[in-house]
Specification:
Elements (H helix, E strand, L loop, with lengths): L1 H45 L5 H7 L1 H9 L13 H13 L7 E2 L3 E2 L9 H12 L4 H10 L8 E2 L2 E2 L9 H4 L2 H12 L6
Antiparallel strand pairs: 1-2, 3-4
Helix pairs in contact: 4-8, 5-6, 6-8
The structure holds heme C.
């Protein structure tokens, strides 16, 4: 009896022992596997990987979270916010642009060209002035008025050097942006 039970006991002990080892080894393999996965995932983000795809995937990740709260961001260039346009009009009035320029309903200046239709005209002027687009033209017209001189002013040919050339220094970045956007939405005809 005893002689029969002893080998069984040893066998069971061995099996338990083997299972313990298997459990430990299995755990180690699991941990090692997780480590490998972490390292593999971390490397493409930090390393100088030649694949631009992986690098660019790593970049949007941090910006995705804040962007989720601002779905209007991509629409901003097409539709300037009312606040921005209000600031633009405020700058236009406060800086005395209206002394020389007409915008229907806002100012009646006749020294420089009317800006009532600036948004519709700017694209064509950009080509003549050799700048990228309508926005670049309007921006240049304000900051660097002598870079390109418009031909026709209300009282005859426009003269260079009449419009003050220091608005780039006077206006803050935000004011200039607002002013440019405000002029770009002027499509009142005429
Ligand atoms: C003292 C008069 C005067 C003032 C003040 C003035 N401008 Fe002008 N502006 C002119 C004249 C003259 C021209 C046309 C000659 C030229 O292109 O420089 C002109 C041209 C422009 C143009 C180009 C118009 C077009 O049809 O392409 C824009 C845009 C403009 N001004 C915006 C402004 C803004 C914005 C302000 C205020 C921050 C301002 N101007 C202040 C006289 C003035």
């Amino acid at each position: 009896m005893n002689a029969n039970e002893q080998p069984d006991g040893i066998l069971l002990d061995l099996i338990r022992y083997a299972m313990n080892i298997a459990t430990v080894v299995g755990g180690l393999v699991l941990v090692a596997g997780l480590l490998v996965i972490m390292v593999v995932r971390a490397n493409p983000a930090s390393g100088p990987s030649p694949g631009g795809e992986q690098a660019s995937q790593a970049v949007p990740a941090p910006t995705e979270a804040p962007a989720a709260g601002e779905p209007a961001e991509p629409e901003a260039p097409e539709a300037p916010s009312p606040g921005l346009l209000a600031l633009g009009e405020e700058v236009f009035v406060n800086q005395g642009c209206g002394a020389c320029h007409t915008i229907e309903g806002v100012a009646q200046g006749v020294v420089g060209p009317a800006l009532t239709n600036m948004g519709a005209v700017a694209g064509g002027r950009a080509g003549e002035a050799g700048v990228a687009d309508a926005e670049a033209y309007v921006r240049q017209s304000i900051v660097e008025p002598n870079a390109y001189t418009v031909e026709e002013c209300p009282t005859g040919a426009c003269a260079p050097g009449v419009m003050p050339a220091n608005f780039g220094d006077v206006l803050s970045e935000e004011e200039l942006d607002a002013l440019v956007e405000y002029l770009l939405v002027q499509e009142g005809g005429g």
